[in-house]
Amino acid sequence: MEKIKSTEKISADLAVHRIIEQIEAPLESVAFDVPLQLPKCVRCQLSCPGYEICQEPEIKWLRKFYVSRNIKKKPERGFTPYTERCVENYLRTELEEVFHPPHALGSNAAPLTARAHFIARRLQVPAIEVYPKLSLWRIGRALGVQKSYLRFHKHSISGEEIREAIISYLIKKDIAFIYHQDVKVLIASPHAFDAFICGLTAVLKFNKQVEPRPKGFPRDEQWIAIPKQDLVWP
């Protein structure tokens, strides 16, 4: 991580590409923990009738989702199709645990999303999208890690202790071999830890241990790599 920084001659983005190019083993994919597809209304090239009556599958899915949501919860809410995607809303409501991924082009995620798109377009291998908090939950539960650890691995006070415990689980179960100096980095940095979880999710995807696209989910809408609940470790 200390190598990824801008200098007078190269940008941090170029530094990322140079690190990727130095990997000797065959590279199957690169995992990102930010949206790799923009919301439908940003990428749409059609004449716009307004999202209230739009018949594009992604917008119809969002309308139906919010109608169902507003029956169950108050106050009623509308959606913003230029910041939201179907996948984030699915993750918030349709899984065994409550998650709160940010909008793809919300104020927090938008700069990171733009940077990811800039970096991904130069890659020579597929890019996959990961939500580390969900991946950690699925991986951790499959290993028997207690739920409180998985919910608070970024906590400002107990986060380092929790990350150390999770890494110990992975090492003891022979899921990962990690050098001691790298263990120290993963414990100290929640960002490095999330990057590690993204990489582990990419391995699971390669081994076909991720969830398929849900039935009825828009065909052209981005689906992310989610580890299966019933993981089978090699």
Written account of the structure:
The protein is an all-alpha fold. The chain has two domains: 33-127, no CATH class; 129-234, no CATH class. The chain is built from ten helices and two strands. It is 45% helix and 3% strand. The two termini are 29 Å apart. The longest helix is centred in the C-terminal third of the chain and has 17 residues, at 190-206. It has a two-stranded parallel ribbon with strand order 1-2.
What is the count of β-strands? 2
Low-pLDDT segments, ≥5 res: none
Structurally, the number of domains stands at 2
The major β-sheet equals: 2 strands, parallel
| Order of the strands making up the biggest sheet | 1-2
Strand-residue proportion: under 5%
End-to-end separation in angstroms reads: 29 Å
Helical segment count? 10
* Rg over alpha carbons: 19 Å
What level of helicity do the residues show? Answer: 40-55%
Order of helices and strands: HEHHHHEHHHHH
User: What structural class is derived from the secondary structure elements?
Assistant: mainly alpha
On the 0 to 100 scale, the average pLDDT is 91
Shape: globular
Short summary:
By secondary structure, the protein is mainly α. 45% of the residues lie in helices and 3% in strands. The chain is globular, with a radius of gyration of 19 Å.
